[in-house]
Specification:
This protein folds into 2 domains: 42 residues; 91 residues, OmpA-like domain (60s Ribosomal Protein L30, Chain: A). The protein starts with a helix and ends with a strand. The chain has a 4-stranded mixed sheet. The chain has 4 helices and 4 strands; from the N terminus they run H-H-E-H-E-H-E-E. It has 160 residues and is an alpha+beta fold.
Length: 160
Amino acid sequence: MKRITALLLASGFILAGCETAPTTEELADQTVNKVQQHVNDSASSEIKNGKNKIISAIASKVAAQPETISFTLSFTKMSAKLDPIALQQINQMLPKLKTAKKITVTGYCDQKEIRNATRAALARANATKTELVKLGIDTSLINTLSVTKEARHVALIESE
């Protein structure tokens, strides 16, 4: 009897240590879960990589674009001559202007105060352009315009 009890106890321990084999359905579920986890991990990684590439592309485009510059040079009412302050302003902005792809110089003159305001406004724009060319900026990059409908006696320099 002791032998039978020992045998039964031993077989009980052996059986308790064994797991039953998973069913086909359980194996299929485990496989699907592993594949889904792998796909999710891969997709997440690809999305992160794609996002990083987009951020890098935008950053490089922004860095490659030259700084936009806009500043105004004042003129006395009856003059188209650049004064020392205007020349100093141009010299301070020159390094940034030299990297510009396009520069627009707009001369302003109030038509209510000056008889030939268009000619005066263009003279201011051209005096400014001449100074920029003298300082080494390619003349083909500079466009000149005139405005006479505003009460201003200035030249506006804008770059792209």
